[in-house]
Amino acid sequence: MGIQPNPVLLASLGVGLLTLLGLAVVSYLVRRSRRPRVTLVDPNERYLLRLLDKTTVSHNTKRFRFALPTAQHILGLPVGKHVYLSARIDGSLVIRPYTPVTSDEDQGYVDLVIKVYLKGVHPKFPQGGKMSQYLDSLKIGDVVEFRGPSGLLTYIGKGNFNIQPNKKSPPECRVANKLGMIAGGTGITPMLQLIRAIMKDPEDPTQCFLLFANQ
């Protein structure tokens, strides 16, 4: 006569397995809910972000803070990439690239530091900057179209870069031990993005040299 299974024991094992499975599912959902959500999911999509704040940095430069979809969202911009802002100004579509001064460690918002070129101030730019003047005219709560990530270069850490010769080419890996950078005015923002990423990693041996000038 064979050994008969104990129905009570089988039921207990079943309950135990279901409990473990339930705990695993709950743990996964909790970890997933804590993971920051990415805003820039598709580089071909346009994302409407609302202006939260404008702060004067200098006589001609301002910081514009835009809200991400939720307080748990990050922008989702790899180091080396930038975003495009677009707006219809005086009947024409105007598109400009910008590199945020915030990173994906900042949740819920993205900051852009932009020099505002006013009309009739600089002889080389008699009409001023179309996009910078447009942004300066925005009221808190107005929205702007963002698109990205864009660009042909991505820094993946420890001196390693993925660089595309053109938009249709696959990325090629390049390694640099020392980086020389030249920047002027708010053009420093792409350099700061890269320098911040390198300095944040104590195991990144890459050396940075920056020549910067500003009016």
What is the strand tally? 13
Spatial separation of the terminal alpha carbons: 97 Å
Helical/strand content category:
alpha+beta
CATH class (first level) name of the largest domain: Mainly Beta
Main beta sheet strand tally, sense and closure: 6 strands, antiparallel
Q: Mean pLDDT, as a whole number? A: 90
CATH topology of the largest domain: Elongation Factor Tu (Ef-tu), domain 3
Element order: H for helix, E for strand: HEEEEEEEHEEEEEHE
Assign an overall shape.
Answer: extended
Instruction: Tell me which CATH architecture of the largest domain applies here.
Output: Beta Barrel
Radius of gyration of CA atoms, rounded to a whole number: 25 Å
Question: Strand-residue fraction?
Answer: 35-45%
Strand line-up of the largest beta sheet? 6-5-8-2-3-7
Domain module count: 2
The CATH H-level superfamily of the largest domain is: Translation factors
Structure description:
The protein is α+β, with helices and mostly antiparallel strands and 215 residues long. It has two domains: 37-150, Elongation Factor Tu (Ef-tu), domain 3; 152-215, 3-Layer(aba) Sandwich (Rossmann fold). The protein has helices at 7-34, 130-137, 189-200, and strands spanning 37-38, 47-58, 61-67, 73-74, 82-89, 92-98, 109-115, 143-150, 153-157, 160-163, 172-175, 178-184, 207-213. A six-stranded antiparallel beta sheet has the order 6-5-8-2-3-7, covered by helices on one side. Strand 10 (160-163) and strand 11 (172-175) form a beta hairpin. Its EC number is 1.6.2.2. The chain crosses the membrane at residues 6-30. Its cofactor is FAD.
